[in-house]
Amino acid sequence: MNEKSSAREVFVVDDDPAVRETLSIVLSTAGYEVICFADGESLLAVARSRSPACILLDVHIPGRSGLDILAELHAEDYPAPIFMISGKGDIAMAVNAIKNGALDFIEKPFRGKEIVGRVEEAIEAFQRRLGGGTEVKAPSYVFPGKEPLTLREREVLELFASGNTNKEAGRQLGISPRTIEYHRANIMKKLGARNATDLVRIVMTAPKA
């Protein structure tokens, strides 16, 4: 990625001028440099050569959808957290986005303070992961015959197995407790765990790669 990237730069992608303006004002007031895009192609033209501190990406944008752009950026491996912005009717789509590497989703209508708080938590958690020391370890558990876990699911599983609550795990990963619960449910489904106790048993007896 381009060395000119800024640690205080946030990319906002939304085709609604009012939403772009609102997010720009709220985040700029909090000290971020906000760059807005009305469609995904415009974002890709910039995001391929420089990485911001965070990306806020709307589900419904002209041309390719937010999910398509997420895949194009290889979201789970992208060097910045990506939030999917969704309306109340887009929750299933937002959950699908998380499966495909989005860190979390922000539901419309949103409050300015909430947006700033979640962006700050996500950026701080991401920097901890990169900086080492307090980063979350994600062992490569081996579950023969089971669907592989994503990197984020392995991080959530490690925190859960270590006794963290949804809130504590969310704080460490910069994710909302609701999304942590989603990850946990998906992990249980993949591993065939009947309940939380069963999940811990499966983890404790699983070999690590």
Describe this structure in words.
This protein is α/β, with parallel strands linked by helices and 209 residues long. The protein is built from nine helices and five strands. The protein has helices at 17-29, 40-47, 66-72, 91-99, 112-131, 151-161, 166-173, 177-191, 196-205; strands at 9-13, 33-37, 54-58, 82-86, 104-107. Strands 2-1-3-4-5 form a five-stranded parallel sheet, with helices on both faces. Helix 1 packs across helix 5 (112-131). The radius of gyration is 17 Å and the shape is elongated. The chain starts with 8 loop residues before the first strand and ends with a helix. Mean pLDDT is 85; it is low at 1-5.
Key descriptive features of the protein:
elongated, 11% strand, alpha/beta, five-stranded parallel β-sheet, 209 residues, 48% helix
How much is the radius of gyration in Å?
A: 17 Å
List low-pLDDT spans: 1-5
Globular, elongated, flat, extended or rod-shaped: what is the shape? Answer: elongated
Q: Work out the strand percent.
A: 5-15%
**Mean pLDDT, nearest integer?**
85
Helix content: 40-55%
Q: What is the SS-derived class?
A: alpha/beta
Order of helices and strands: EHEHEHEHEHHHHH
Strand order of the largest sheet: 2-1-3-4-5
Largest β-sheet summary: 5 strands, parallel
Distance between the termini: 30 Å
Number of strands: 5
